[in-house]
Amino acid sequence: MKIFIKNMVCGRCISAVAGIFNEAQVKTTSINLGEVETETELSEEDLHSIEKKLLETGFERIKDSAHQLVEKIKNLIIAKISELDIDENFLLSEFLISKLHKDYSSLSKTFSQNENITLEQFFILQKIEKVKELLLYNEFTLTEIAGKLGYKSVQHLSSQFRNSSGFTPTEFKKLKVHNRKPLDFV
Fold first, then answer.
1. What 3-state DSSP class applies to 16?
2. Quick check: 7 and 60 in contact, CB under 8 A?
């Protein structure tokens, strides 16, 4: 049985969800971002118990296909950004079409209707949150970050950063309080 779960955005999320299923003594065949596959069908009682534990931990079972698709899109985007290997000629549309084998206009429409934000806006916001993270780690220069996240120039990155956060990357680094948003709330 496949169970789709909202807000799974990282490896720690997979571990947390695995713990919930183990605690409920439900055997799984696979756990990936956004979905869990169980060895057997679950009773309504088991599903209700797992749903309750998921909610307590910040996750949520997704029941309808539109929300499942939106969650898959989010997970693909977050995983792609986490790789830190986005070519400057990267096209979000081609990437999603190749991964989901669906028409981009329908993906975009479904996403926008369910999230009240366009796919492109979501992608930019996710990249900006990754830039904030990388700036705080102080591992890479702004030029290196721009290259890893597919920006054609540091100026382009800085412009998007300022539009999104209200600060330049340099101003952000100097702040005492870094207003970062969890990836599952962007």
1. helix
2. yes
> CB pairs under 8 A, 24+ apart, for 160-165?
160/124, 160/127, 160/128, 161/128, 161/131, 164/124, 164/125, 164/128, 165/128, 165/132
| Rounded alpha-carbon distances, angstroms, from residue 32 to 47, 75, 171, 174 | 18, 10, 37, 37
Give the residue from 99, 157, 97 showing the smallest Cα distance to 131: 157
The answer to whether the beta carbons of residues 186 and 122 sit under 8 Å apart is yes
Q: What is the pLDDT of residues 57-94, one digit of tens each?
A: 999 999 899 999 999 999 999 999 999 999 999 999 99
Q: Roughly how many angstroms between the first and final C-alpha of the chain, as a whole number?
A: 29
Query: Using CA atoms, how far apart are residues 5 and 47, in angstroms rounded to an integer?
Result: 12
The predicted-structure confidence for 26-41, as pLDDT tens digits, reads as follows 999 999 989 999 999 9
Number of H helices, E strands in the chain: 9, 4
Residue 75's nearest CA partner among 48, 21, 111 is 111
Per the CB < 8 A criterion, the answer to whether 142 and 169 are in contact is yes
